[in-house]
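#struct-help
A.M.: can someone run this one for me? Single chain, 140 residues.
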Amino acid sequence: MAGLTCRKKGAKQKHIKKANLKTKRFRRDVDQVVLEDMLPENEKKLLNQPLDEHKPGMGQHYCVHCAKYFISDIAIETHFKTKEHKKRFKTCKEIPYTMEEAMRAGGLQPAKPKFTKAIYAGKTKMADLEESKQNEDMSD
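D.P.: on it. Structure tokens below:
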């Protein structure tokens, strides 16, 4: 009888571990990073934080794109060279779709053209489309 209960406990612990691993290394989603953290005023605050002993590296070494703290300058410099950071940097260049754009794509709202402006120096697909339409109007 004891053998059966032990096996069940072991299986439950494995499931709990898998669930914990998903949230253990959770980082902010791309849309949260682009629409909140990458605004110029917020980015300055994140890069110039006051000393905080509860954060890695006293909160002084922060990667805005990956939303991670690092222990030292060397650690963050090596992070900038990794494949993970380069992928995240590339996905952060474009502004993610808003809820309104998703509703229009699903056919739940009328298809009216609404162009989103770039928040930072990068361009969006919608901004490129708007720019091309303006160029066509000027040439006509």
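A.M.: thanks! The longest helix spans residues 2-24.
D.P.: also worth noting: The mean pLDDT is 76.
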